[in-house]
Amino acid sequence: DTEVTQTPKHLVMGMTNKKSLKCEQHMGHRAMYWYKQKAKKPPELMFVYSYEKLSINESVPSRFSPECPNSSLLNLHLHALQPEDSALYLCASNTPGRPNYGYTFGSGTRLTVV
Amino acid sequence: GESVGLHLPTLSVQEGDNSIINCAYSNSASDYFIWYKQESGKGPQFIIDIRSNMDKRQGQRVTVLLNKTVKHLSLQIAATQPGDSAVYFCAERSFSGGYNKLIFGAGTRLAVHP
Question: Rounded mean pLDDT of B9-28?
Answer without folding.
Answer: 95
